[in-house]
């Protein structure tokens, strides 16, 4: 009899545990720059092209790459049962629409339309749901009106995510102080970056990745003197002349270069964005680069910062943000010794 009681009690305990676990929402999935748009078909037909243009702006890496991936699903569609677990959901509709009221869950919402409301962990843990509350008349125009604010929200959120991921290992603030004291410049790097110094060539590299090939490298060097003008060709020529110990040669493509002026603490400069590849005859590889030539008048120095990325078969927007964050931390030091 005792054996029968034990045999029955164990399955009951397991069933109770499983029932309790079923109340816990599953974890959100999907890429951080994927956006699932829940909207009725008739509304989506009116705003689809405008939404794609506003929320998926291109960035030049090795080609024009979409910064976000927008996927539409209609309320009640079979695929919604899977897509609703994505990390980022955008819901379009009026407060009276069932797919909107489910998200609002009876909580107070703005009286004016259009308006934006955010909720967390609605259908999955770690999920952000953004609801655009629309008026009953002129819904399509209201969506278009909200797109600039929506893009700013999504982009700032993604940038925060990318930077947090980059500094998971911590920020090497002590090493930045050492650079200021010994090299004459400041640069804030993640602690995981390896460091190599050859004379006035400083190489910072992170090629550690699990299950994928991912190489992020930042090279800093300088020359005495300050040029009268800064040009993209001068940046690219200096980049081509760099020695790259243990990294292999790179061919800098000149067919498309994006150039802008920049300012840094204690100096000013020029940024050039483009693409690189391995020389002909070598294993084919390539990726984007973001280079800056920075003039530091008080030091009588001109710096070159060469930041490049190799991540095949993956979107590169997140990693370009990370490289630019490192570049933005550069600061001129005091007078050169």
Could you characterize the architecture of this molecule?
The chain has 337 residues and is an alpha+beta fold. 32% of the residues lie in helices and 30% in strands. It has eight helices and 17 strands.
Show the helix and strand layout.
Blueprint: H1 2-22, E1 34-38, H2 41-55, E2 58-60, E3 64-66, E4 69-73, H3 80-83, E5 88-93, H4 98-104, E6 115-120, E7 128-133, H5 139-166, H6 173-182, E8 185-186, E9 194-198, E10 201-206, E11 215-224, H7 232-241, E12 251-252, E13 258-264, E14 267-277, E15 286-296, E16 301-310, H8 317-328, E17 331-332
Output the helix-strand order: HEHEEEHEHEEHHEEEEHEEEEEHE
- What share of the residues does DSSP label as strand, in percent? 25-35%
Instruction: Report the average pLDDT across residues.
Output: 89
Ends apart, CA distance between termini: 89 Å
Q: Which quaternary structure do these chains form?
A: single chain
Structural class: alpha+beta
Q: Compute the gyration radius: what is it? A: 26 Å
The geometry reads as: elongated
Figure out the total of helices. Answer: 8
Give a quick account of the main beta sheet: strands, pairing sense, barrel closure: 8 strands, antiparallel
Uncertain residue ranges: 1-22
The percent range for helix content is: 25-40%
Number of strands: 17
């Amino acid at each position: 009899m005792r054996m029968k009681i034990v045999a029955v009690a164990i399955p009951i305990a397991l069933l109770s545990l499983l029932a309790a676990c079923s109340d816990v929402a599953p974890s959100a999935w999907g890429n951080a720059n994927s956006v699932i748009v829940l909207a009725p078909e008739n509304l989506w037909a009116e705003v689809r092209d405008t939404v794609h243009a506003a929320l998926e702006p291109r960035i030049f890496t090795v080609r024009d790459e979409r910064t976000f991936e927008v996927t539409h699903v209609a309320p009640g569609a079979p695929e919604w049962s899977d897509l609703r677990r994505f990390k980022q959901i955008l819901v379009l509709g009026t407060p009276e629409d069932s797919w909107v009221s489910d998200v609002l869950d009876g909580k107070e919402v703005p009286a004016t339309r259009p308006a934006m409301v955010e909720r967390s962990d609605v259908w999955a843990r770690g999920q952000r749901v953004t609801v655009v509350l629309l008026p009953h008349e002129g819904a399509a125009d209201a969506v278009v009106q909200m797109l600039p604010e929506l893009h700013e929200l999504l982009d700032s959120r993604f940038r925060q995510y990318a930077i947090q991921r980059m500094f998971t290992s911590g920020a090497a603030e002590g090493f930045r102080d050492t650079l200021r004291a010994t090299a004459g410049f400041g640069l804030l790097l993640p602690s995981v970056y390896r460091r190599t110094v050859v004379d006035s060539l400083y190489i910072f590299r992170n090629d550690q990745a699990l299950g994928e090939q991912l190489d992020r490298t930042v090279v800093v060097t300088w020359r005495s003197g300050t040029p009268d003008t800064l040009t993209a060709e001068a940046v690219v020529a200096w980049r081509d002349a760099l020695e790259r110990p243990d990294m292999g040669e790179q061919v800098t493509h000149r067919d498309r270069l994006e150039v802008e002026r920049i300012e840094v603490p204690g100096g000013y400069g020029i940024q050039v964005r483009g693409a690189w590849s391995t020389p002909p005859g070598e294993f084919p590889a390539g990726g984007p680069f973001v280079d800056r030539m920075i003039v530091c008048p008080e030091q009588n120095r001109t710096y070159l910062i060469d930041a490049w990325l190799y991540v095949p078969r993956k979107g590169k927007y997140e990693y370009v943000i990370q490289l630019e964050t490192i570049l933005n931390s550069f600061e001129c030091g005091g007078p050169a010794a």
